């Protein structure tokens, strides 16, 4: 494996800065042949881009047990590589920061924006022979503020969804009303509540939700007539029972046709 690539080197190479960075690795493999240096790198790795970006303070999740070179405490789960030696966060003056694991990009971005001091936590992936970002260290107050903002955003999205749902519901009501009026225009003696029921059923399928043109098509004379006819077939005739008892559909339709036409005439429909 490549071995000697420290996080700074690995990152700067990929971010296109072109200089050889110091070792920040924790194993002999990782550190072999590397010069000492501070835990600063350049960001911009992982996006596949070649852009240069602001330097970033790097904190390592060591893959071997390491003590702090300064206070000898440890092994520590997070270390900063400073002047060729690992230091714990307390010795590196980062002890007050809190860890935010990767995975929530908006929260991460906002936390870092709000944080006067922040660091990126990386861990060496031996198999891929490169450092991978694990999360960030930020000020607790910054994280709290960022969480509030993300929650506010989520709340704003929730409210928008509620408004959208209300608008769609209002559209559905308008569509149902229009459909019922059209039924009553074509079948003046169709009971009002029956017209509304047929319209409500139709709006479940072809409502304003589908868009204005689909709603318009649904309100055409043919569409209204076929919705009414279907309703009569199922409610005023033994059509469903015939089907259930094994009568073929066309035969069942033939048998009930008289009742359907009689009902439509009764409701004042124009003869077909
Ligand atoms: Zn220490």
From TrEMBL:
Residues 182-268 form the DUF2293 domain. It comes from the Bacteria. InterPro entries: DUF2293. Residues 1-39 are annotated as: Disordered. This is DUF2293 domain-containing protein.
